[in-house]
């Protein structure tokens, strides 16, 4: 995967992704298919004009289902049960460092 890409070039079966890191620019080569996330500097956004927005409102929208794209939505995970984690046990207070070390030794944390 390539993250925070500011430039992407595809050559054959590899993608060269340039990204900004603390020390400057880093270019990595990724075999395709790859996942690439982008930075704001990759593209300049195009803003729609008001006449184009009004034209788009009048165009019909095609209603598609996942089956139209060959996507199967049958659940593949079965939840057996959900339970809360056990309540955290109360801690204890010790009087001094020696008592703390003795308590840790008795619990077997240190030898």
Compose a concise summary of this entry.
The protein contains two helices and four strands; from the N terminus they run ββββαα. With 111 residues, it is of the alpha+beta class. A four-stranded mixed β-sheet has the order 3-2-1-4, with no helix packed on it.
Q: What do these coordinates show?
A:
With 111 residues, the protein is an alpha+beta fold. The protein has a domain of 43 residues. The protein is 18% helix and 26% strand. The protein is built from 2 helices and 4 strands. A 4-stranded mixed β-sheet has the order 3-2-1-4, with no helix packed on it. A hairpin with a 2-residue loop joins strand 2 and strand 3. The longest helix is centred in the C-terminal third of the chain and has 11 residues. The radius of gyration is 29 Å and the shape is elongated.
Largest sheet: 4 strands, mixed
Strand percentage: 25-35%
What is the total tally of β strands?
Answer: 4
- Amino- and carboxy-terminal Cα gap: 45 Å
Catalogue the unreliable spans: none
Q: Summarize model confidence as the mean pLDDT.
A: 90
Strand order in space, largest sheet: 3-2-1-4
Q: Which geometry do the CA atoms define?
A: elongated
> Roughly how many Å is the radius of gyration?
29 Å
Q: Structural class of the helices, strands and pairings?
A: alpha+beta
Order of SSEs: EEEEHH
Question: Helical amount among residues, as a percent range?
Answer: 10-25%
């Amino acid at each position: 995967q390539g993250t925070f890409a500011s430039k992407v070039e595809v050559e054959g079966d590899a993608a060269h992704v340039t990204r900004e890191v603390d020390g400057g620019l880093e270019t990595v080569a990724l075999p395709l298919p790859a996942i690439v996330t982008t930075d704001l500097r990759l593209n300049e956004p195009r803003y729609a004009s008001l006449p184009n927005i009004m034209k788009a409102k009048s165009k019909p929208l095609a209603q598609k289902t996942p089956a139209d794209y060959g996507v199967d939505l049958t659940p593949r995970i079965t939840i057996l049960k959900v339970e809360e984690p056990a309540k955290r046990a109360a801690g204890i207070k010790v009087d001094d460092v020696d008592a703390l070390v003795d308590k840790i030794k008795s619990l077997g944390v240190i030898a």
